[in-house]
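Annual report, structural modelling task.

Input specification for the adenosine-3',5'-cyclic-monophosphate complex:
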Amino acid sequence: MEKTLILIKPDGVKRGLVGEILQRFERRDVGITNLRLLTPTIEMIKEHYKEHVGKIFYQELLDYIMEGPIVAFVIEGNNVIKMARTMIGDKDPIKATPGTIRGDYGNSIRRNIIHASDGEASAEREMKIWFN
Ligand code: CMP
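The model returned the following structure:
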């Protein structure tokens, strides 16, 4: 069994996609073990995105994630880390396959609705940031 972190970013919440996104995970029959709506602190965001410090989009990324509330949740099940990444789709809207969350609702590499941890180590690290 694996666990991974999913964030519905401020644009996903504002656009009313929370129910739709949660339903997609429920229909895959994975367990949702934690869920919260929160406005994160700048410290949480900096910790979460520390690997992107210095990148050209870093400041824009911080501003975007601070725009409003986020829905954070943890899913549990067999191979959920890779499964969630497949379900959310490529961050580049040109590459995001229809049927994936970004492929159905996204049109920007920067404002891309949703985040899912990209591996076991990042899932462990990120779950601690959002759920102590
Ligand atoms: P996420 O998967 O949460 O991880 C890093 C985030 O940086 C990404 O989603 C986007 O929101 C943002 N970002 C902005 N520009 C880029 C870019 N050119 N490449 C990758 N990520 C970007």
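Residues 120-131 form the longest helix (12 residues).
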